[in-house]
Design brief:
The complex is a heterodimer of chains A (about 150) and B (about 180). Chain A is an all-alpha fold and about 150 residues long. Chain A contains seven helices and no strands. Chain B is built from nine helices and no strands. The chains are: A mainly alpha (about 150), B mainly alpha (about 180).
């Protein structure tokens, strides 16, 4: 099958694979670092700490989760690993959902670039709304999940 | 190349890994029990996600092959309600760092893409199809399905609200 392909096709397949390798390689230090840090924190921080920070209040938990996600940055893979492990430590699904959503929708680190290229008003407004929506999305998702399951 | 120059070329994520490794080195020296417990947990998590990474790699390669930036831009130029649909699909299918898309979106803005559609596109970039297997492993497919649907709906509402708010802001700045 490979022999039947045109050289242009072969070239684009190679480029697609190389791009994927490059994408994963760029994320590699962050992924390994996050797993190491998560493992360390899981061992050193007692479960009672997480249950005391997150009060099981819908709005407060999603606010804290959204806030942590907003100031964090990096590949979404990292947020899944961290969020998933936090769930295991007793952190509520609402807080973890707000964390996951704000991680990928709020871009404080990219804010200067977004402001310069797409406009300051738009960039600030979009990020504020993305933060508010991370809380709303978290609450709606967990409520809907509760209804379905 | 000098060691200093090599250090300058390192990205922030490598510095992050180095700092974490230094924490582990301190842990090895001062608290070997904690060090080995952490390392065991690290090994367990790694073992859980390695097979998923192979799938993520395959999906990333496929999306890189079939979905090019030209493909996304072509469909963002659709008109009417179709525009919203293609903006959502475009956002989900787009890959690469977010800042790479800013100049293209600024260009499309000049050609008629409004603020709400840009916000909608950027919001839907949060949904990453190649990463879904990893997300499902951690959070179950029911949760990921609901989250994806809620996020798509939220992206449309956010887009409409941003359009309205940007209009109000522009009217205020024009009248003053």
């Amino acid at each position: 099958m490979w022999a039947l392909m045109t050289s242009e096709n072969k070239k684009s397949i190679k480029q697609s694979i190389l791009k994927a390798v490059k994408g994963l390689w760029m994320a590699f230090p962050m992924i390994i670092g996050t797993i190491l840090l998560t493992s360390f924190l899981s061992v050193i921080v007692p479960k009672s700490f997480y249950t005391s920070v997150f009060s099981k209040n819908f709005f407060f938990d999603s606010f804290i989760g959204g806030l942590i996600g907003s100031i964090s940055a990096g590949n979404p893979i990292t947020s899944y690993i961290f969020g998933g492990e936090m769930l295991g430590k007793g952190v509520g699904l609402i807080a973890v959902t707000a964390f996951l959503v704000s991680w990928v929708t709020v871009g404080l680190i990219q804010l200067p670039a977004e402001s310069a290229i797409l406009g300051k008003k738009f960039a600030i407004l979009r990020n504020i709304m993305a933060f508010i929506f991370s809380i709303i999305v978290a609450i709606v998702t967990v409520l809907a999940l509760g209804v379905i399951l | 190349m000098k060691f200093k120059d090599k250090l300058k070329q390192l990205s922030g994520s490598w510095y992050f890994l180095i700092i974490v490794l230094l924490i582990y080195l301190c842990l090895f020296i001062f608290g070997q029990n904690l060090f080995f417990s952490s390392l065991k947990l690290f090994y367990d998590i790694l073992l859980k996600i390695i097979p998923i990474f192979i799938l993520v790699f395959v999906l990333m390669s496929l999306s890189n092959y079939f979905i090019t930036s030209q493909f996304v831009i072509k469909h963002l130029k659709e008109k009417g309600l179709k525009k919203w649909f293609f903006v959502i699909i475009g956002g989900i299918l787009s890959s690469g760092p977010i800042y790479m898309w800013y100049p293209l979106l600024a260009d499309l803005k000049n050609k008629g893409l409004n603020h709400g559609l840009i916000a909608c596109f950027l919001y839907n970039r949060a949904i990453k199809i190649p990463l879904l297997p990893l997300a499902i492993i951690y959070f179950s497919w029911q949760y990921i399905l609901i989250l994806t649907i809620v996020m798509i709906i939220a992206s449309i509402i956010q887009g409409i609200l941003i359009n309205k708010l940007m209009e109000v802001k522009n009217e205020n700045s024009n009248s003053s």
